[in-house]
Specification:
Blueprint lengths: L2 E6 L10 H8 L4 E7 L8 H6 L7 E2 L2 H7 L6 E4 L10 H12 L3 E4 L9 H10 L3 E3 L22 E7 L6 H14 L4 E5 L2 H5 L4 E2 L7 H19 L3 E5 L13 H5 L5 E6 L19 H11 L2 E7 L6 H15 L3 E2 L1 H4 L2 H14 L2
Parallel strand pairs: 1-2, 1-4, 2-3, 4-5, 5-6, 7-10, 7-11, 8-9, 8-10, 11-12, 12-13
Length: 355
C-alpha cells in the first residue's frame, strides 16, 4: 500500500536539480504524492511544470500552506532535489524542521544525512518520527562480495548506460520495463540510485554510497535475488554516470560484473562536455566511439535512446534518423515517441534465446 507523501523542491522544480522529484512525478509505487512544495511554481501542477502534462499534483508555496489546504494528510516529506555537493543548505534545513514539526517523517536521498544533524534527529525522536537516509551505506554484514552466481541468472540482462550523468537513464530503464510488461513479458528494473528506490523498484542497491570493494557483489546479488524471486524474462539495469566521465567513471561493472547481455545507450547530442565540468578539457565522445568501447568490454549496443534537452524535437528526430542509418540500430526518443522499436529488438532476442 502506498504511503502519502509530499515532495520539497525549494524553488528548483523547473530545473534539472530536481531530477528526483521529476522521477517521482513520472511514477512511483512507493508513495502516493499529495503535493509538491516549491515557492517558485506554487499554484501550478507539478506535471505541467515538468513536461506540460497535468497529473493532478498540486504545488504549494510552503509546508504550512499544504497542511492548511490539503484535504488529505501526509506521513512523509521527501527531499526532491540534488544540492551542490549533496549538502543540506540552511534553506532546506528550515523546511525539514518545519516538516518534522508538522509530524512528517523525512525521506532523504542526499549524501548529507538528516540523521547526522542533531537538532533534526532529536526532534524526530521526540515526535516518534522516522528519518530515512536512503544513501546511508549498508552494514558490513549485509554486503556481498562478487562470487560468480550471476551465471545462474537466465533472464536477458540489459544495461542502460549513458554518455554522461543526469541524462535520464533511470527514466529510460523504467519506460523500457513498463513497455515490456505491457507487451506481455515479465520485466524488472534493477535500481542503482536513490530515486529508483523511491519510485518503488524492489531490487537494487545505491551505487554511489557502496564501498568500492562491494559494488560488483551488490550488483550481482541484486540481479541474482531478482531472478531467484521472480524469474523475469528480461531485466533492465539502471546505469550511473558514464564510462569516461572523469568525475566518476562507471559502466564497466554493468558489463563485466553484472554480465549484461546487451546495452541500450542514452545520449544527448546537444551536450558536448560532461555535466557541470565545462571548465575541464574532457569532451563527450561520439556515440559510435562509445559503442566501440562498450564492445571492447564485452557487450553489444542494440539501441540508442535520445535525451532531447536543449534540442527542438524535430532536430532530435533528424539526429536520430541519421544516426540510425549510420549505425544500423534503432535510435528512439523515449519520452516523445515511445520505445516500440526497442521492444521489437528485445522480443526477437528473447525468441532466439528460447529457441
Amino acid at each position: 500500500m502506498k504511503t502519502n507523501a509530499i515532495v520539497i523542491t525549494g524553488g528548483y522544480l523547473d530545473s534539472s536539480n530536481a531530477k528526483t522529484a521529476h522521477g517521482l512525478i513520472r511514477g512511483t509505487e512507493r508513495f502516493n504524492l499529495l503535493g509538491f512544495i516549491d515557492h517558485k511554481s506554487a499554484g501550478k501542477d507539478a506535471g505541467e511544470v515538468l513536461d506540460g502534462k497535468n497529473r493532478n499534483m498540486p504545488i504549494y508555496e510552503s509546508i504550512s500552506d499544504f497542511v492548511k489546504k490539503s484535504p488529505e494528510k501526509a506521513q512523509y516529506c521527501v527531499i526532491g532535489v540534488a544540492t551542490k555537493g549533496g549538502v543540506i543548505p540552511e534553506s532546506l534545513m528550515a523546511m525539514l524542521k518545519e516538516a518534522l514539526e508538522n509530524n512528517l517523517s523525512i525521506v532523504n536521498g542526499l549524501h548529507d544525512y538528516v540523521s547526522d544533524h542533531e537538532e533534526l534527529a532529536s526532534l524526530a525522536k521526540a515526535k516518534g518520527l522516522e528519518i530515512v537516509d536512503v544513501r546511508k551505506p549498508k552494514k558490513f554484514k549485509d554486503l556481498h562480495f562478487w562470487n560468480g552466481k550471476i551465471k545462474e541468472v537466465k533472464s536477458l540482462k540489459v544495461a542502460v548506460l549513458g554518455t554522461d550523468c543526469a541524462l535520464g537513464k533511470r527514466t529510460t530503464s523504467r519506460i523500457l520495463t513498463e513497455a515490456m510488461i505491457k507487451a506481455g513479458y515479465k520485466a524488472e528494473m534493477i535500481y542503482t540510485g536513490q530515486t529508483g528506490w523511491m519510485q518503488g523498484a524492489k531490487y537494487g542497491f545505491i551505487f554511489d554510497s557502496t564501498l568500492n570493494d562491494f559494488i560488483s557483489g551488490e550488483m550481482e546479488h541484486a540481479i541474482w535475488q531478482c531472478y531467484q524471486d521472480v524469474k523475469p524474462d528480461i531485466m533492465f539495469i539502471e546505469g550511473q554516470s558514464s564510462l569516461r566521465n572523469p568525475s566518476g567513471p562507471a559502466g564497466a561493472e554493468w558489463i563485466v560484473s553484472a554480465d549484461a547481455d546487451i546495452v541500450i545507450l542514452q545520449h544527448n547530442p546537444a551536450r558536448k562536455q560532461y555535466k557541470d565540468m565545462e571548465y575541464y578539457p574532457a569532451y563527450i565522445p561520439a556515440v559510435k566511439d562509445e559503442i566501440d568501447l562498450i564492445k571492447i568490454y564485452g557487450a553489444n549496443t542494440v539501441g540508442i535512446t535520445v535525451n532531447t534537452m536543449k534540442m527542438k524535437t524535430e532536430e532530435a528526430r533528424e539526429w536520430a534518423k541519421q544516426t540510425e542509418a549510420e549505425l544500423n540500430i534503432p535510435v528512439v526518443l523515449p519520452l516523445e515517441d515511445g520505445v516500440d522499436k526497442l521492444v521489437t529488438v528485445f522480443e526477437n532476442l528473447l525468441k532466439q534465446r528460447n529457441g
